[in-house]
């Protein structure tokens, strides 16, 4: 859709935007300005010339892409840390006994849920999304919108409704769906959401993550990581913690400004992008790859052939690691996930139909 | 000492390196390489070409400056988050009842201690460093090495000894001492330490913080933020959390690589620096400023005139905010802390005796 805005190396077909998004061309120059002018020349003054509010301002930019109105998304910390904040806030004061996690969760979500369980005395129960059994014991449900391994997508409307019917809040992890699917957080009355910005949002390696706390939840959102950036009056240097009334209470410490402003710059490629168009483009790319791979090889595709789905195709392949090494040697960059999965991500902003065909042909040459 | 390595704007006397360190000249070019080559060209491959191990490698570089042998310092997250990790790990399983914090602590340390107290049922007691009364009820002691407001320095050997005599571990916050004082973490058998890298270490705005966990504490260090980067085998994507045996267990989520590699570049200016020489240079600069200010004004200096002390001079001044605005307008950049403190930091690597004299003269012109 906007490949001309990206720096894709000559000879490379990049199908790993679901792991690390490609570099928008203008980011390097912007970062020169940030480093040389904002840090080098303006020095400490830059904190009052845009740095301090950057997490909320950039949060709003991401909010537009995930169906969140302004003032409900803030950028900072890692996804893991934001899962911790959301879960701890969600179970604060609960009289219920369990945290429900989808059993195919990205590992870090499950690890953090385990820690939250230990800290709060709650049990963690891993369940299949098709039979979550959310009930009156469920304190919170933590779900991955798109399965990182298979690309299967959960029905956010249906599962959020199930949780609410049982009186449980839900935390959605959007790491593999933000930037590919029209998400409707506000409309579906999602309780909390988190996600990273370095995959399909192409914000840069390890770019800061985000957390969504809707307006009506903010007054009761207790951040367990009560750092000074979330204080109502951070520079008053008060002795006791008094959280900001709004989304800033989800902030913790001083944010990594260079990574954050690289993300800010990178988000320019999303200006005026219609997520419905991105979504249709992604569906088309994954469908084309499926057709080519099925035609050219006998490999098993484990990504479900249904709509909705994530923007990736995962393929079972006994010798996945070596096959991926060979693909990369031939210029097709995807990744593999143990034990036997080849993953290919199709970022609609910069992957073309030509890339898709050529990648399938090279894959076929290797495995046949 | 090494001013030629820094980009200090023409006409600026920069006395705020205790808040945001100045820009080393070579960082901008290095970040071009990181962005254009490592992110843009190498893409996902960079994770196995140095990115994944960067937090430990850079941690070791900081370790050299704070008296920690290799394999005990890791970089990532903010200071606030690292205080949380250290305190939670320190009180895990304790049968004692209180967390002791120095009463003039930087606010975020106290806020995080409060949250840890609420999560664990421990009481937080704020005490004067001169009468901490560490006793058999004390589960952990959290101390700021240098007071951010006054520049007073605590005696790390004496207070660590006091804590250990009472059977309590101690967490030292080095935010205002790392990069100015020869710290001896290993030698003093400090239990845990945290600090930021964007002040005297000049790692860039909001650069990642660090945490020190000595070898003999690592096996029992339980990170409450059990993210996948701290896992023994992160890419095995196992369902349960099994921490790395070493310092990597203090990692959490995917680190902000751009901010982290800017810090890495910035640390080059510390290569071969002898912290004893830095320390003496800093003492000389602060002594000179004290002398000039005392000679030229009647302002009250609240930084203690004793050794050791931090590399800053704090001055009581009724109209601190306006005076600082005027100083900045005339090219002397310090900062103010409410209600009535002017702060001036003296980074030995780039502040000169000429800067010190001129800053005192301009201050005198404004207040007299």
Any chance you could write out the topology, listing elements then pairs?
The structure is a homodimer of 368-residue chains.
Chain A: E1 6-7, E2 13-14, E3 23-24, H1 27-41, H2 54-66, E4 73-75, H3 79-91, E5 98-102, H4 107-120, E6 123-127, E7 138-144, H5 156-165, E8 170-173, E9 192-195, E10 210-212, H6 215-218, H7 257-266, H8 275-296, E11 300-301, E12 312-316, H9 320-329, E13 332-333, E14 335-337, E15 341-345, H10 353-367
Parallel strand pairs in A: 2-13, 5-6, 5-7, 7-8, 8-9
Antiparallel strand pairs in A: 1-3, 4-10, 9-10, 11-12, 12-15, 14-15
Helix pairs in contact in A: 1-7, 2-7, 3-4, 8-10
Enzyme class (chains A, B): hydrolase
Keywords (chains A, B): Hydrolase, Pyridine nucleotide biosynthesis, Pyridoxal phosphate
InterPro entries (chains A, B): Kynureninase (IPR010111), PyrdxlP-dep_Trfase (IPR015424), PyrdxlP-dep_Trfase_major (IPR015421), PyrdxlP-dep_Trfase_small (IPR015422)
What would your notes on this structure say?
The structure is a homodimer. Chain A is an alpha/beta fold and about 375 residues long. The first copy, chain A, has 2 domains: about 5-25 and about 275-365, Aspartate Aminotransferase, domain 1 (Alpha-Beta Complex), CATH 3.90.1150; about 50-270, Type I PLP-dependent aspartate aminotransferase-like (Major domain) (Aspartate Aminotransferase, domain 2). In chain A, about 35% of the residues lie in helices and about 15% in strands. Chain A is built from 10 helices and 15 strands. Chain A has helices at about 25-40, 55-65, 80-90, 105-120, 155-165, 215-220, 255-265, 275-295, 320-330, 355-365, and strands at about 5, 15, 25, 75, 100, 125, 140-145, 170-175, 190-195, 210, 300, 310-315, 330-335, 335, 340-345. Chain A has a 7-stranded mixed sheet, sandwiched between helices. A 4-stranded antiparallel sheet of chain A has the order 11-12-15-14, with helices on one face. In chain A, helix 4 links the parallel strand 5 (about 100) and strand 6 (about 125). In chain A, helix 3 packs parallel to helix 4. The first copy, chain A, is globular. In chain A, about 55% of the residues are buried. At the A-B interface, helix 1, helix 3, helix 4 and helix 7 of A face helix 1, helix 3, helix 4 and helix 7 of B. Chains A, B: This is Kynureninase.
